[in-house]
Write a structure and sequence with these properties.
Layout: H1 9-23, E1 30-36, E2 42-48, E3 51-53, E4 56-62, H2 66-73, E5 76-83, E6 88-98, H3 101-110, H4 113-121, H5 131-144, E7 156-170, E8 178-185, E9 188-193
Antiparallel strand pairs: 1-2, 1-5, 3-4, 4-7, 5-6, 6-7, 7-8, 8-9
Helix pairs in contact: 4-5
Length: 196
């Protein structure tokens, strides 16, 4: 059966995502995030989706990490969701913007205290002498925030990918897959089917 388009691609995404949350064993919100480094080379890693609406797809990270510095320097990226249990995939491409401080503060406050301490302790993507070095930093920040709430680090926030294009892919027998593309044209979305 072909993929039935919706007027807005985010509606189709939400329908598929709801099914994925029911069928995926772990982390239906896991997505591959591709960014571009200063040398022009792409880099990719898995991150967790923390929000998706008509404005875009939100995830959080250390802005001093490799992905953080790449996205700040070259604010374009691509995402890929792969739900093996459903034999479906969604790709999203677009511009990157930072979330507001209020959004970042609210999400940071919702995290487990240990994860909040970890955001202070980890010098993400930088060389580390050994695990003992990280554990020592965890101890330092655990003592620093022994009482009261853990404030969000200034280097920790979120990004929103604002979609310019989507591709919905559904597995088909004999590799005759269904592919449906949405492309932004002004305020509207144009759809077309692609050969597998």
């Amino acid at each position: 059966m072909s993929i039935e388009p919706t007027a807005e691609p985010i509606d189709l995404f939400h329908a598929w995502f709801a099914e994925a949350r029911e069928s995926e064993t772990n982390d239906a919100n896991a997505m591959a995030l591709a960014s571009v480094g200063a040398d022009g080379m792409p880099s990719i890693r898995m991150v967790l989706l923390k929000g998706a609406d008509a404005d875009g797809f939100v995830f959080y990270t250390n802005f001093e990490s490799r992905k953080g510095t790449e996205l700040l320097a070259h604010p374009q990226a691509a995402l890929c969701f792969h739900w093996k249990s459903l034999r479906r995939q969604v790709r999203v491409e677009g511009a990157i913007e930072t979330v507001t401080d209020a959004e970042a503060d609210a999400y940071f406050a919702s995290r487990a205290r240990g994860s909040q301490i970890g955001a202070w302790a980890s010098q993400q993507s930088r060389p580390m002498a050994g695990k003992a070095e990280l554990l020592k930093r965890v101890g330092v920040f655990t003592a620093r925030f022994a009482v009261g709430k853990v404030e969000r680090p200034p280097h920790w926030s979120g990004f929103r990918l604002v979609p310019r294009g989507f591709e919905f892919w559904k597995d088909g027998q004999f590799r005759l897959h269904d592919r449906l593309v949405y492309r932004r044209e002004g305020e509207d979305w144009r759809t077309e089917a692609l050969y597998p």
